[in-house]
TrEMBL record:
Protein's recorded name: Sulfotransferase
Family: Belongs to the sulfotransferase 1 family.
Alphabetically ordered keywords of this record: Transferase
Pfam families assigned to the protein according to its UniProt record, in alphabetical order: Sulfotransfer_1
EC number(s) given by UniProt: 2.8.2.-
UniProt keyword Transferase present: yes
GO CC list: cytoplasm
Enzyme class at the top of the EC tree: transferase
Amino acid sequence: MEGIYKTLPQHTYSWSQGRATFYKYQGFWNVQNFPEKTILAQSYQAQPSDILLCSCPKTGTTWLKALSFAILTREKFDHASASPLLTTLPHDCVLFLENHLAKIKENPSDLPLLATHLPYSSLPKSVIASNCKIVYIYRNIKDVLVSYYHFVRELVNLSVEDAPFEEAFDDFCQGISSFGPYWDHILEYWKASQERPDRFLFLKYEDLKKDASCNVKQLAEFLGCPFSVEEEKAGVLENIINLCSFDSLSNLEVNKSGMYQADEVSGVEHRLFFRKAKDGDWENYFTDEMKEKIDKLIDEKMSGTGLVL
Ligand code: A3P
């Protein structure tokens, strides 16, 4: 497998001082060891009852995992005092196919939830064949870019001064980011959703924030676990929204410390999954030219989809 890297297009973030090199594999960029992870994930045998939470990094994956987990386990745990989310990183409650296939196979969960950042075209064939449900979350591209910039910067331990945002911006606009091009990731899922609309739920991070009740109810229905009128009256929906809110999760001890093991070699501090969660943070980073450039790019790429990034 080592030899494959010599054949793949390659790009190193100059500001990462050699610590972030990306390879383009099956049409998408990612760090070394992703071809291996993808191939392994593709051996997963999906069941029709599986529900896959899909996303590009920094679009609200952690939030979607927490909400889906809380919705599906609401009868099992008293969310105020005993939810696993109070003591476990959401990424360890709902596992990524590409990171933890062995664990998934060893301990099959009674919960049908799995997550992946893999592009639609790289999903295991069994996911498509089984016709299982897919929830896809996406977010305003400018906020994703800023979120992603800080995430990578922190991963390679650089200060803002040592990691020029301009370069991160240029790379992202060329499509070079984890699981990028971001727009192609969205477009692949969107196109598939046009063919099987009943199997897909598209959620937008900003909408989820604006109207959590409506969106979480929609998510619960899609997951096959709608809230009853009694539950709503009893505040179950509200409790789940509160438990999974940024303020709540980011202040939990478990999410402020500890290390997420993406695989044997790479770890991510839990705190890095919780930064600011502010809409429009991009305005603090983008020049007018950057805004113009990315708006033009997105208009071109997303035209005809009705998706607003
Ligand atoms: P910011 O960097 O803009 O703060 P992902 O989970 O896909 O990696 O996305 C991470 C982004 O989601 C980060 O955005 C993070 O702060 C935000 N986030 C994490 N948990 C959240 C929550 N419970 N509610 C809203 N946003 C959340």
